[in-house]
Amino acid sequence: MTKLFDLTGKTAVAIGGNSVLGSSIAQGLIDHGAKVAIVGRNLEKAEEVVKELENSGGTAKAFQADVSSRDSLIRVADEIEQWSGGWDILLNAPGKNSSTPFFELEMDEWDDIMDVNLKGIVLTCQIFAKKMIELKRKGSIINISSVSSTTPLSKVFTYSVSKAGLNSVTQFLAREFAPNGIRVNAIIPGFFPAEQNKKILSPVRIDSIMKHTPMNRFGTPEELQGAAVWLASEKASSFVTGALIRVDGGFGGMTI
């Protein structure tokens, strides 16, 4: 069974790997044998994550890039290729949120969130998947979506729209890349308190979330590792592509 999830010899690129959820998933990939490139806009935070990964016995390296910039992504892809020779796993975990009410939303803020959550994923897949195809590297692309992608949440209009778009991108690219042996799937996390949503988790909102979550608790970052490792493994999930995998404590199945 352990061989089923063995990632030894694989290289993973974790875009947004310096975030709470991204770094936890990176740890899961490391623990199963992969080496990981941690890519973040903030290089210092990326280097801190790398130190933690190396302390656990893993091989990792920090890289800086802005996901909304094609030139930045091309540069970092070249740097990672020089470091590892290529990659087999692409984790897309950048994220930006805002609680601005709809009628107060300015298009600068809309563009900023969309640039990171949606445009950034499209650019990243254009650059990194194209290189995988050129190098004939079969593999797995894992996008981090959100429960708000299927049931829009109050107070996070732009975020919800961006994640709904990400689901569509995931399924389109699954079809596009399948002939090249590249699988594309998305994980739909439930409520995992992280940097971008802590500021809107008031006591009233937390109570509402718990009433809509059958397991009656928040998720912990480590609980995303299993789904990510499964999707990363060419043996364990070889016939899985275009899937939207919920890790949400039952939130998506709740009604009244």
Automatic annotation (TrEMBL):
Gene3D superfamilies for this protein: NAD(P)-binding Rossmann-like Domain
Top-rank taxon, per record? Bacteria
Keywords assigned by UniProt, alphabetized: Oxidoreductase
Enumerate the GO terms in the molecular function aspect.
oxidoreductase activity, acting on the CH-OH group of donors, NAD or NADP as acceptor
State the organism of origin.
Cytobacillus oceanisediminis
Q: Name one GO biological process term.
A: bile acid metabolic process
* Membrane-spanning parts: none
Looking up Pfam families in the UniProt record yields: adh_short_C2
Kindly provide the name given to this protein in its UniProt entry: NAD(P)-dependent dehydrogenase (Short-subunit alcohol dehydrogenase family)
Family to which this protein belongs: Belongs to the short-chain dehydrogenases/reductases (SDR) family.
